[in-house]
Design brief:
The chain contains six helices and eleven strands. The strands form three sheets. Strands 5, 6, 7, 8, 9, 10 and 11 form a seven-stranded mixed beta sheet that branches. The chain has a two-stranded parallel sheet with strand order 1-2. Strands 3-4 form a two-stranded antiparallel sheet. It is α+β, with helices and mostly antiparallel strands. The chain is globular, with a radius of gyration of 21 Å. Helix 1 packs antiparallel against helix 2. Strand 7 and strand 8 form a beta hairpin. The chain has two domains: 52 residues; 140 residues, Beta Barrel (M1 Pyruvate Kinase, Domain 3), CATH 2.40.33.
């Protein structure tokens, strides 16, 4: 039988633990220990606890299942690139995205040449930015190590209209997507306009630091 911890009970635990951080740690440990032998059902809206404790998240609306994040975690953008150890939640396809300064500089040179304004890196929202390589060299990286973490390529990242949105003002235009479309269409699918590289972390725990060297393990 599953063990159900209702929202009111769970919230009461959390409200008490806000006064005693050690108690919160103990409650989390208890739930994890129980979860080794039983299915623990938690009803809560506290996202932090969901991320720390849950391996599967269901969203139920009016008695109907509308979202199952375990299914989402197992279906990244390129399903053929996943392996059984790849489990991650709350990410849009892949947990990491790497882009090079050279790739952005190449794009901005093209924008300026046609009278458009250059764009900052935040248009592409990468989690990792690297320097010292040629433009779009990251496309060719199959495996790499940065700091303590080994990453595996998830393939190029197809961009949508979000990259045309100024991240500070919210204003939207046509660039840089229109210019990217002129030279960055995927050779296997012309509807995809690629910029930057999706990554999956093979090392599940480690440290990344600003200035860490990038070691290419496989091209």
């Amino acid at each position: 039988m599953p063990l159900l911890i209702g929202e009111s009970i769970f919230q009461k635990i959390l409200s008490i633990s806000l006064l005693d951080p050690n108690q919160l740690v103990g409650i989390r440990r208890l739930i994890r220990d129980l979860g080794k032998e039983k299915t623990i059902l938690l009803s809560t809206h506290v996202l932090q606890e969901v991320e720390l404790l849950c391996q599967r998240v269901l969203l139920i609306h009016e008695g109907r299942l509308v979202f199952d994040i375990r299914d989402r975690a197992n279906t990244p953008i390129s399903a053929d690139r996943i392996v059984s150890a790849d489990l991650f939640n709350f990410s849009d396809g892949y947990p990491f995205l790497v882009a090079s300064e050279a790739s952005l500089a190449d794009l901005n040179d093209r924008l300026v040449s046609i009278g458009e304004e250059p764009v900052p890196m935040d248009r592409f929202r990468p989690s990792l930015v690297v320097s010292g390589c040629s433009a779009h060299a990251e496309d060719t990286w199959s495996r790499l190590r940065i700091g303590d973490i080994t990453f595996r390529s998830g393939g190029p990242c197809a961009r949508c209209t979000v990259v045309t949105t100024d991240q500070l003002t919210g204003e939207r235009g046509h660039e840089p997507l229109r210019t990217l479309a002129s030279y960055r269409r995927d050779p296997t699918d012309s509807t995809r306009i690629n910029f930057a590289l999706n990554l999956t972390h093979e090392t599940k725990s480690g440290t990344l630091r600003l200035g860490d060297a990038v070691e290419l393990l496989k091209m």
